[in-house]
Sequence to fold (160 residues):
Amino acid sequence: MNLQKPVYAWLIALLLAIPGPSPAETAKASPLPSPLDAAIDACAECKMSVKDSGYAAQAIADDGRVYKFDDLGCLFAFLSADTSIVPAARYVQDANSRSWIALEKAYYVVSKEVPTPMGYGIHAFASKGAAEAFAKARKDKAKVVALGDLSIPTDSEMKM
Fold:
């Protein structure tokens, strides 16, 4: 008598009973980041060239338009100024690896000690440990901050 057959049948039945994503949920999957091309990509906010420097960012609107940024601060300034854009996905580059990270999953360090393309001083990291190590190495008392705690300087503050 084979006792394993009922166990496998029960396991298969259980796996089939677990629902997968609905077609609507699958259709709403976040679009992937678009590759950068410094020869043609211009920042949607400041119009400077967008380079694969570890400070780039992008927002992909729900209509498929891709907005690229040379500095994380430009992304935040752009999205706060143009509220008609509904982002389906937002990505920032890891300052170390230059890989793309979902905006909401990144760890941030604000430090003017290491310059960013437009001087906002916002650095994104894929891991909290990398962000903490970066902050600890700074002399300007940089700290790891949550996305909601980022403070984006105004144009007048940037000129100071």
In short: The CA atoms of residues 106 and 126 lie 5 Å apart. The chain is about 25% helix and 20% strand. The chain has one domain: 32-158.
